[in-house]
Design goal:
39% of the residues lie in helices and 15% in strands. The strands form 4 sheets. It has a 5-stranded mixed sheet with strand order 4-1-5-14-6. Helix 5 crosses helix 10.
């Protein structure tokens, strides 16, 4: 018996009742029938399993797949696999036997061109990690071809095979794991506000009302700002229309007075504050995020190898040494260690 026929019978039986009570009884019975219906019917096939059949099972699986609470925990373990290494083999077989890596050349102490470095080679925390990955794959830490990639093109550069990977302060999130594959996390940070020292802005709060805020295209900062605007939780009148290709462009606009504040990763904000003493971090981190090495979907052997490198890089103390060299001066303030000073723990799928 379908829901429509049941409703007709109920109406016939209740005609003499009248009043609100009849309608309440009708609604309650119809609702109960609607809730029980999926449990008493299969999806139209003969191989229903359990009380709900495949229709219910598929619905539960779809909801489980859509759930994304900890995207940083979805990378494959360093060990395992079938032993084949097709992606790494292709890299090793190149005539120009180098790893091609997308990086930033404008993020102070992360990936940047130091004018005092006569070789012209990029330097920074991310760059140290790239050299270690190259050493583990090709036996030579300098077997790397660096490509400067703007924030807005990180994913496309991977998908179009312009690079083997991107090591560029790239946050692992639920949207990105559908487009590229990530290593286990190698750094923990979050979003933070950067503004002039003289500004009355105190953080990601009502002091941003009617302020012009800059963020980088395709960044998690922009996603957060747009999401909060859509939900109606963005401070009233805040203008988030200034979007730039590279997050460093926001600092320039802040210096020129074209915007009132920048929202970006706290680690990058700290480096920018170190570059310009007229700006400072305002308030604490208001999100919890993790950087990962991004690679093409399906490149399982390369991902596992990078995770093995990260595992040893942290265990052997090289991660800590690189942090001390590059990030300690800007991130550890007032004699206290930053929350980012400890490498994040890896949880593999």
């Amino acid at each position: 018996m379908d829901a429509r026929r049941l409703a007709q019978r109920l109406r016939t039986g209740l005609r003499g009742w009248g009043g609100v009570g009849a309608m309440a009884a009708l609604c309650a019975l119809a609702l109960a029938f609607a809730l029980l219906l999926p449990l008493t019917q299969s999806s139209g096939t003969d191989d229903a399993a359990g009380s709900g059949g495949p229709g219910l099972a598929q619905g539960l699986q779809a909801r489980a797949a859509a759930k994304c609470d900890n995207p940083q925990d979805g990378s494959p373990s360093p060990s395992g696999g079938d032993g084949s290494t097709p992606v790494i083999d292709r890299i090793k077989a190149r005539k120009d036997r180098r790893l091609i890596v997308g990086i930033d050349t404008n993020s102070y102490r992360w990936g940047y061109l130091n004018p005092n470095n006569t070789s012209g080679a990029p330097e920074g925390f991310d760059i140290d990690l790239v050299h270690q990955i190259a050493k583990d794959i090709l036996g030579d830490p300098n077997a790397v071809s660096f490509k400067a990639i703007p924030t807005s093109r990180r994913i496309k550069a991977i998908q179009d095979d312009e690079v083997d990977m991107v090591v560029r302060t790239m946050t692992i999130n639920c949207d990105r794991i559908k487009q590229v594959a990530f290593s286990a996390p190698y750094f923990r940070t979050g979003q933070q506000v950067l503004a002039p020292r003289t500004s009355a802005i105190t953080g990601y709060n009502k002091t941003l009302s009617h302020k012009r805020i800059c963020s980088a295209d395709s960044s998690t900062a922009l996603e957060r700002l747009q999401g909060d605007k859509q939900k109606g939780t963005l401070p009233s009148g805040a203008d988030i229309g200034t979007v730039v290709p590279n997050q460093l462009d926001c600092l320039v606009k802040l210096q020129l007075g074209e915007v009132d504040a920048v929202v970006t990763d706290g680690a990058l904000a700290a480096s920018q504050a170190a570059q310009d003493p007229t700006v400072q971090l305002k308030g604490g981190l208001f999100t919890d995020e993790y950087y990962g090495v991004a690679m093409k979907l399906g490149s399982q052997d390369l991902i596992r190898q990078v995770n093995r490198t990260l595992q040893n890089y942290i265990k052997d103390g090289d991660w800590a040494a690189s942090y001390e060299k590059w990030l300690h001066p800007t991130m550890d303030q007032g004699g206290e260690k930053s929350a980012s000073a400890t490498p994040p723990e890896a949880h593999y799928k």
